[in-house]
Amino acid sequence: MNTVLWIATALLATVALAGGLTKTFLPLPRLAAAHGGEWTADAGVTQVRALGVLELLAAAGLVAPPLLGIAPILVPVTAICWIVLMIGAMRTHARLDQDALVLVNACYLALALFIAVGRLALVPF
User: Fold this and answer.
1) DSSP symbol at 27
2) CA distance 83 to 106
3) pLDDT tens per residue across span 62-120
4) Whose CA is closest to 83, among 111, 49, 48?
5) pTM
């Protein structure tokens, strides 16, 4: 189970890293032109960049604590925060009638829930 949790965590951290890098560093018009990024056309640059930084922090919070042996409780806490972020993402994509992206975000939410439960109750560090 520990290996499965690590694989799930690595997957979610990769998603968070990719999303964080694009939201933090790509120009807003380029994000708005991309499929799934249409919401950024109505958002301010500060909001998009803040979400990008949060995603970068999530990527770090999922893998760094146990690897460094410092406060591994941050892994399930980060996963719970990711759940909240995905609820917002699902609402945003639903508002834009992007059902496929709502489903993708629901999968990320489920992955984060698995990590949170796994690291809090099943196989804590």
Assistant:
1) -
2) 9
3) 999 999 999 999 999 999 999 999 999 999 999 999 999 999 999 999 999 999 999 99
4) 111
5) 0.90
